Sugar acetyltransferase (Janibacter melonis), 208 residues
Amino acid sequence: MMRDLVIVGAGGFGRETVDTVRAINRGKPTWRILGVIDDSPSPANLNRLAALDLPHLGGLAALPPRSAVALCIGAPADRSRLAQRLEPDVELPSLIHPSTQIGSLFRHGHGLITLAGTSIGTNVRVGDHVHLNAHAVIGHDVHLSDFVSVNPNATVSGECAIGTQVLVGAGSTVLQGLTVGRGSTVGAAACVTHDVPATRTVKGVPAR
């Protein structure tokens, strides 16, 4: 029996999550996407939803009752605030693309979303509402805390600890065994070679 699902967020990650859901359904029909919730979608994103044959249902007040929600807000802090509004009354399931490579002893919380081509090594722990974008690589023994976003083609090397609400930018690399503190941002294409304190933004090679 298929279950109702609503996508929250009409931006790129929301629409890419639709691809993940449709890939899941090709293997086993699981989710019926009712549409997309967004308080203020741009005209361009409304056109993109129409091209995907997805209705815009309105703002958060229009959330259909008893439907599961895919929380597709890219900014970690914004995603955290919205999750606090919705939980515990709304189911926030994990949606894992079938092409995701998953190692042994993988553990994750609820609300995990992975896109196509993600690779997850052995003994990885992932918290709640983590986003792993296309072709993200998570090495062995990594811990990703709640509300982490790892953007496309980024690599978090083995034995790293990534704090709550961290954004790891597209094409960046965090070298082995490092810690990135809560609320920090790793810029696109950066190479992190040392621990990053909380609430910092680092960029460049090496990242500073």
User: Anything to note?
Assistant: Residues 35 and 53 are 9 Å apart (CA to CA). The mean pLDDT is 97.
